[in-house]
Write a structure and sequence with these properties.
By secondary structure, this protein is an alpha+beta fold. 27% of the residues lie in helices and 33% in strands. It contains two helices and seven strands; from the N terminus they run E-E-E-E-E-E-E-H-H. A seven-stranded antiparallel beta sheet has the order 4-3-2-1-7-6-5.
Length: 147
């Protein structure tokens, strides 16, 4: 069984959950307590946008944000391939993206600001000035230690 942790948003409340699925069942649990269990054909997992999935069962939909979206997508694709179909059992059920998408968004990886060009005259001047200051302070400290 493939098991993935993440967050489900329910009425503006973020709930940590574990989603487990294989070819025979989908299980949803939180803090060790089972929320629900569904057989194939009783649920649908649809991609809403990158890193956000809609899990629909019993005419209710929850937005699931896995902590590792790429691994979840791979596990979901592998499981669907095992069934002989890459589509969910309820294809076309959620063709319209809801107008209100939960505020939960997957974490955005940190991206450093673009580096200055090393050939920039100001960068070179700053580097040489800092280097000269460091050498000067080192010589001054060595002189004061011995004299």
């Amino acid at each position: 069984m493939h098991m993935f942790d993440g967050i489900v948003t329910l009425e503006d409340t973020e709930i940590p959950v574990v989603v487990g699925f294989d070819s025979t069942v989908l299980r949803l649990s939180s803090n060790g307590a089972e929320i629900g269990e569904w057989s194939p054909g009783e649920y649908a997992i649809d991609l809403v946008r990158e890193g956000v999935y809609s899990i629909t069962a019993e005419n209710e939909s929850l937005y699931f944000v896995p902590s590792q979206p790429k691994l979840f997508a791979q596990g979901l694709t592998a499981e669907m391939a095992g069934r002989g179909s890459f589509e969910s059992p309820n294809v076309g059920r959620h063709t319209v993206i809801p107008a209100v998408i939960p505020t939960v968004t997957p974490p955005i990886p940190y991206r450093a600001p673009p580096a200055s060009s090393p050939s920039s005259p100001m960068v070179r001047l700053g580097f040489y000035a800092l280097s000269a200051l460091t050498v000067g302070l080192g010589i001054w400290a060595a002189y004061n230690m011995f004299f």
